[in-house]
Amino acid sequence: MNPPSGNSSIETLYEEHQPWLLGWLRRRLGCGETAADLAQDTFVRLLARPRELDGARNVRSYLGTIAKGLCIDHWRRRRLEQVWLETLAAQPEAVALSPEHHALVLETLAEVEAMLRQLPPKVADAFLMAQLQGMRYAAIATALDVSERMVKKYMARALLHCALFEASLEESTRRSS
Amino acid sequence: MKTPNAATGCPPGFDSLQQAAEWFALLRSDTVSDEDHRAWQHWLGSSAEHREAWQRMETIGRRFSSLANVDGEGAASTLRTLRRERASRRRVLNTLVLAGGGTLLGWNLWRQQEWPQALITGLRADFSTGVGEIRELTLDDGTRLWLNTASAVDVALGSDSRQLWLHQGELLIDTAADPRPFVVHTRHGSLRPLGTRFAVRQERDASWLAVYEGRVSISAGTQERILPAGSKTRFSTTTIATPRATDENGVDWSRGVLRADNMRLDALLLQLGRYRHGHLGVAPEVASLRVMGSFPLQDTDLALDMLESALPVRVRRTLPWWVSIMAREPE
């Protein structure tokens, strides 16, 4: 299915479709440099999963699908960084972080953001209040205008959701490796 | 650190994770009794799967406490801001916000549209748009024209008359006050606006007129009729149909927007299809889904992305010009 010639065929694909992909990304992103990066990343992804490519007929739509996902990730990550930096800047006592630590925090924020993304607002809010702001259930209950029992339910629901989300990530990593 | 479930080598099952989440929520609560602790210990000791499930809760908890150690309030506020933005983006999906001046706000993926604005100075000029193109023009008498997708018009501004010939497609016209009479010709008849804003679309067998301000007189074949603002009608070379009510939604296209208010998906795609080349198909099982929202006409790929994120559908692009909308497989 994927003979040794696989890589050389990817080279051909690269030559044939890279200019098109670059143009496509540039139109979407409005930035040549980022477009070039993401075009590169798209082919790297393709290289990692050549078996999903069945014949050259729908190469462009497949490339487009990968690139679209990368664009969305890119926008999301960039916005996350912006908001985090603005939040830090708005504080009277700036938190001083080393670049490595800063990158690590952003990485964690992105993971956490993805985990909580699908949760209903109150559930996510309760979880943030408890886990990040260290609030007691009674205070959370008052803030959200629900009972303490409900706060406990929200917490359990959020945790279960996070755990299932993690498990689904593991599963997809396992499948693609 | 993750250790696989010793008993099965698999991640813990749903039940164990659910129980672990409930225990975590209980132990984190304001009032935890010794009895609760003993019961939890018992649960933990009763199976390796439970321990694995519990470890996962702790891993999640650690991720949040690592943020809390840096700046819990800042992290919480950042995440809330992002959630708010996502929520408003989702609302934008439903109703793209039109601010003053027709600027579209909100949607992150929205690219600033280029709306070429040409000032026409010649006495006679021919204008056309390709598929997917919407063009805004200002004639030198101050009249504004919007050409919808795949449209063509000739303009002649003479010393004693202003005349437009619509050869194909659709026009929105906002006439400027001028002593010279204004006439729009279609294959099926002529329209004489009386200080007004109106749209006209030509199809094979008939033309459509919709009046938004003022009045427009139609003459088609031997018939004559004056259409007031807020009404539309269809006319052919032989008949003028009974007018019906219309509203401004009909000219959203002039701002590059297609607005759906409880529109069937297949009807929406039929409209979107006017702005792109090639096949745009819809599977019967999703054709009758109802759609609310506003969609960008000059980036129909984006419009399809939006549909994909708002509805249980999947956009399959077999080839760039062969697109099918299918039901999304359950995840």
Provide structural commentary.
- The complex is a heterodimer of chains A (177) and B (331).
- Residues 1-6 of chain A have low confidence and may be disordered.
- Chain A is built from 7 helices and no strands.
- Chain A is an all-alpha fold and 177 residues long.
- Chain A has helices spanning 6-29, 32-48, 59-89, 99-116, 121-131, 137-144, 148-176.
- Chain B is an alpha+beta fold and 331 residues long.
- Chain B folds into 3 domains: 14-93, no CATH class; 117-247, Jelly Rolls (Sandwich); 256-327, Phage tail protein beta-alpha-beta fold, CATH 3.55.50.30.
- Chain B has 6 helices and 19 strands.
- In chain B, strands 3, 4, 5, 6, 7, 8, 9, 10, 11, 12, 13 and 14 form a 12-stranded mixed sheet that branches.
- In chain B, helix 1 packs across helix 3 and helix 2 (34-46) crosses helix 3 (48-94).
- In chain B, 34% of the residues are buried.
- At the A-B interface, helix 3, helix 4, helix 5 and helix 7 of A face helix 1, helix 3 and strand 18 of B.
Question: In terms of topology, how is this protein built?
Answer:
The complex is a heterodimer of chains A (177) and B (331).
Chain A: H1 6-29, H2 32-48, H3 59-89, H4 99-116, H5 121-131, H6 137-144, H7 148-176
Chain B: H1 14-27, H2 34-46, H3 48-94, E1 97-98, E2 104-105, E3 117-120, E4 124-128, E5 135-139, E6 144-147, E7 152-157, E8 162-174, E9 182-186, E10 189-202, E11 207-220, E12 223-228, E13 231-235, E14 244-245, E15 257-264, H4 265-273, E16 279-282, H5 284-287, E17 290-296, H6 300-310, E18 313-319, E19 322-327
Parallel strand pairs in B: 3-5, 8-9, 16-19
Antiparallel strand pairs in B: 1-2, 4-7, 5-6, 6-8, 7-8, 8-10, 9-10, 10-11, 11-12, 11-13, 13-14, 15-17, 18-19
Helix pairs in contact in B: 1-3, 2-3
